[in-house]
Each structure stands twice: as structure tokens, then as C-alpha cells.
């Protein structure tokens, strides 16, 4: 088990066993020992649609019940909906989800009563789990007595998202909702229909389908292009498995980048400070009237950056990741109403922001995207890429400038490099290539920017080929 960019991750078969009860117990003990919760307090549990999630949820509920907590079962709800309910009710939360990764893996996201855990919390929970293991004591799991709060959780999130735009704000738009196995699939339809959009549900699946909104698969893109051709959609929307990362495709079925969605949302919220990782588009600083703070990849780092901005006296502070997940650290006033801070990734505001912009301007999404004049960017990953191989590659590239130059020689000459999170290299021709191992999965990611779409795709493919070649030659 390992904490990564967003929560604990591991093999589903392990989490269905002792591991989930162990980490739920460690989390509960951490809450009790730090005074962040007391015996008798409520803890909320939600889950995605993976086959393993109900069993993992039951293990967690049993472990927390044994520690004296009351467990409210929020069922299959989006992660931001669970987090919002937790903040409103001042309750800690666990979301059982592996997000976008394959179904043979799963994970748990943890929330204190005041919001998502940070890196120091992760360290403390990991130490607590290790201490439980060292003690040799059997884990206690009581029969899980839970109360069904799924309807309450869903309604609270629906009300938040149906207060953002004027009535009828999406009238005239025809939108496909790719439902697959995301827990947001029904809420997406309800919210978009509330604003007057014509909705057609697509691709609902009873088996889990991993959808990565940051590196959309060729199969998913082909599906969306077929659907827009068939139905003449203005947009297709979807999310990852737990509904905290948006996927928006334009009228041609081409996915819009998540950092563009985050940028549009920042303007929609009239943000004054934006916190975003180094992997987000380098053109963001020049594309708005807000200050930008850059961080490492992962919601804990974005949250930490937002907290630093608030502590420095900034207001109207928000953040987003390159996958489009949006976080708010302060209250914003939208449509004449106050929107409370929700410092965890949310997919709904970015979607509504760009769809309402298209409706208001009466422009296709492709034209909206082009109007921001961002550098062309692309990203992809090599799946089932051993963690040890990723670590060895990064060690080699960092060992010397000669190693890095030799590795990139077939692609271009190095101008500058940054080592904030992975290696981000600016080439002498102005292109950018960034190598970064996933924080919680056996994947190697590559991010690029270039002066044209074709140049960006060429650079991406070249970067992935160099990684494959190096791994094969080891």
C-alpha cells in the first residue's frame, strides 16, 4: 500500500483483505489521538463502482465501528459530493476509489472533518498503521452498523451545482453524457438538464471502465467522435471513476485539456490567486488577471499551496490540476450566491464554466478553446511500467547533464530544466518535455508543449519511445 498524488492505492485483492481494515483503523486512531474526532462522532463512507469497492467499504466500516465511530454509508457518490457533505456536517470521510486506474487496483481517499488530509497526515497515518502491525495485535472489526445517507449527500451536491448559473443557462446546447461507470453519471444528467440542455445518455456500463481524463485513450476518443457524428452534439462530457476529474470533448469529439478547463473556471470564478502544478500549461500565467503559484503534482500539494496563499492574505483563492479537477480555498460569490470553499477536486464547476461560456457566446467549444491561445500541449502514459524501472530512469536522468543530454539527443538540445516534480526540460527550440513517474500506480507519464498540435504530438510520441527504448535496453 502506498499514498500517492491523491490517496492510498494498491491491488484490489489486498484491499479486500486486511489492508483496508488496517488503514481505516490507523486513520480512526489518528483522528482520536489528535483530537480531530471523538468516539461517537460520525464518519462518512462513499465508494465507486468497482467490484471490490463494496467489500473494502464494509471492511473500513467495521474497523471504524470497532473504534466507536458512527458510520454513515453515502453509497456510490462523487468524491466532491462526499467531501462537501463531510464539511457541512463536520465529519471525517473515506472514499473507496481507484479513480481512473484499472479495476484490479483500488484505493482509499481520507478526509478530516475540516477537509482532505495533507502529506503530514499521510505520514502520521502510515506510521500508525506500521505501529499496529508491529504490535502483532489482531485487528478488531465490529459488525458494520451503518445509516444510509446517499440521498442526503447527492441532494446537497445537486443544490450546490444548480445554484451556479442562471436558469436556462445551457438552453440550446445538445450534450452527450458518457456515463460508463462513473459515480457522477446520474448527477451529471440531472444538473445539465436543470439548466435547459438537451441531454442524451451514452455508454452506460455495469462493469467498471477506467477513464483517465488526463490521458484520454484512443478508444474513448474514437467513441466520442462517432457519437458527435451521429448525434451532432455541441459537447460530450464525462468524468473519471469517482467524479472528481472532468472530461469535456468539443463538437468534433476532441477532448479539451484539463488545464484549459481549469483556466476557464478561474475566469468564471473571478479568481485572484490560482494554484496549479508544474504540469499545467505554461501559458496560464499570461491568460488571466490572477496570480499563479506552481506546485508539485497532486491535490495535497495544491491544497498546501492554497493554504499558503490564504495565510499570506490572498482572497478568491482556487486551484486546479492538469487533469481539470478544481479546488476552492475561499468563498466565492457566483450568480448572486455564496459558494463555500471545497478544497478537494471537483469536476462540475469546470464543466459548467466552459459550457455556459459556449452558450453565452454562441460559439463552438473548439473556438472557445482556440481563443485562449495557449501553447499546444499533450500528455500520455505508459501503463504497467514497473515502479523500479521508473525510479531507475529518473535516477539516470538526474545523475548528470550528460546523461540527460544523451537521452534527449534524438529529440532536441536541452536549454533549461526543472526538478520540482519529475524532470521538466525546455528545449532550445522552445518545446517542453516533462518525464514523471505516477505517484501511486505503475505508470510513467510524459507531458509536452510545442508550437503546433502536430509538433506536440510528435514530441510526445518521441518522448514515450525514448522511455520504452531505455527500459528495453536495460
TrEMBL record:
The alphabetical list of record keywords is: Isomerase, Magnesium, Metal-binding, Phosphoprotein
Q: Which family does it belong to?
A: Belongs to the phosphohexose mutase family.
Q: Which organism is it from?
A: Rhizobium croatiense
Q: Which InterPro entries match?
A: A-D-PHexomutase_a/b/a-I (IPR005844), A-D-PHexomutase_a/b/a-I/II/III (IPR016055), A-D-PHexomutase_a/b/a-II (IPR005845), A-D-PHexomutase_a/b/a-III (IPR005846), A-D-PHexomutase_C_sf (IPR036900), Phosphoglucosamine_mutase (IPR050060)
Pfam families per UniProt: PGM_PMM_I, PGM_PMM_II, PGM_PMM_III
**What is this protein identified as?**
Phosphomannomutase
Looking at the record, the residues that make up the Alpha-D-phosphohexomutase alpha/beta/alpha domain are: 2-133, 171-253, 259-371
Q: Which cofactor does it need?
A: Mg(2+)
Amino acid at each position: 500500500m502506498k499514498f500517492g498524488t491523491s490517496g492510498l492505492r494498491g491491488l484490489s485483492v489486498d484491499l479486500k483483505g486486511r489492508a483496508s481494515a488496517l488503514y481505516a483503523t490507523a486513520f480512526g486512531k489518528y483522528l482520536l489521538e489528535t483530537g480531530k474526532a471523538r468516539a461517537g462522532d460520525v464518519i462518512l463512507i462513499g465508494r465507486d463502482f468497482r467490484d471490490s469497492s463494496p467489500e473494502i467499504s464494509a471492511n473500513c466500516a467495521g474497523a471504524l465501528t470497532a473504534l466507536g465511530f458512527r458510520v454513515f454509508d453515502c453509497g456510490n457518490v462523487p468524491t466532491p459530493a462526499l467531501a462537501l457533505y463531510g464539511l457541512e456536517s463536520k465529519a471525517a470521510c473515506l472514499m473507496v476509489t481507484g479513480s481512473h486506474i484499472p479495476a484490479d487496483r483500488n484505493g482509499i481517499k481520507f478526509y478530516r472533518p475540516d477537509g482532505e488530509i495533507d502529506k503530514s497526515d499521510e505520514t502520521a497515518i502510515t506510521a500508525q498503521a506500521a505501529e499496529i502491525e508491529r504490535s502483532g495485535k489482531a485487528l478488531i472489526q465490529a459488525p458494520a452498523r451503518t445509516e444510509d445517507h446517499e440521498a442526503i449527500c447527492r441532494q446537497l451536491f445537486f443544490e450546490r451545482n444548480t445554484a451556479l448559473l442562471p436558469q436556462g443557462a445551457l438552453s440550446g446546447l445538445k450534450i452527450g453524457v458518457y456515463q460508463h461507470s462513473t459515480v457522477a453519471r446520474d448527477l451529471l444528467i440531472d444538473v445539465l438538464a436543470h439548466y435547459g440542455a438537451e441531454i442524451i445518455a451514452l455508454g452506460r456500463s455495469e462493469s467498471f471502465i477506467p477513464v483517465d481524463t488526463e490521458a484520454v485513450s484512443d478508444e474513448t476518443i474514437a467513441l466520442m467522435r462517432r457519437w458527435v457524428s451521429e448525434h451532432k452534439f455541441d459537447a460530450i462530457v464525462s468524468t473519471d471513476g469517482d467524479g472528481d476529474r472532468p472530461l469535456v470533448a468539443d463538437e468534433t469529439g476532441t477532448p479539451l485539456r484539463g488545464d484549459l478547463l481549469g483556466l476557464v473556471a478561474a475566469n468564471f470564478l473571478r479568481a485572484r490567486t490560482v494554484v496549479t502544478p508544474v504540469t499545467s500549461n505554461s501559458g496560464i500565467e499570461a491568460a488571466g488577471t490572477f496570480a499563479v503559484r506552481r506546485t508539485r503534482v497532486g491535490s495535497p500539494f495544491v491544497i498546501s499551496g492554497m493554504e499558503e496563499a490564504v495565510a499570506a492574505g490572498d482572497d478568491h483563492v482556487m486551484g486546479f490540476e492538469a487533469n481539470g479537477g478544481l479546488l476552492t480555498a475561499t468563498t466565492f460569490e457566483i450568480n448572486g450566491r455564496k459558494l463555500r470553499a471545497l478544497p478537494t477536486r471537483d469536476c462540475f464547476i469546470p464543466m459548467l464554466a466552459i459550457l455556459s461560456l459556449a452558450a453565452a457566446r454562441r460559439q463552438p467549444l473548439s473556438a472557445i478553446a482556440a481563443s485562449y491561445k495557449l501553447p499546444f500541449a499533450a500528455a500520455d502514459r505508459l501503463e504497467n511500467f514497473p515502479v523500479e524501472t521508473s525510479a531507475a530512469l529518473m535516477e539516470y536522468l538526474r545523475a548528470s547533464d550528460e546523461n540527460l543530454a544523451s537521452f534527449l539527443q534524438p529529440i532536441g538540445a536541452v536549454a533549461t530544466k526543472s526538478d520540482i516534480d519529475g524532470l521538466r526540460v525546455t528545449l532550445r527550440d522552445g518545446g517542453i518535455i516533462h518525464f514523471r513517474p505516477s505517484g501511486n500506480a505503475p505508470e510513467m507519464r510524459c507531458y509536452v508543449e510545442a508550437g503546433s498540435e502536430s509538433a506536440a504530438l510528435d514530441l510526445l510520441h518521441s518522448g514515450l519511445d525514448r522511455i520504452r527504448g531505455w527500459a528495453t535496453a536495460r
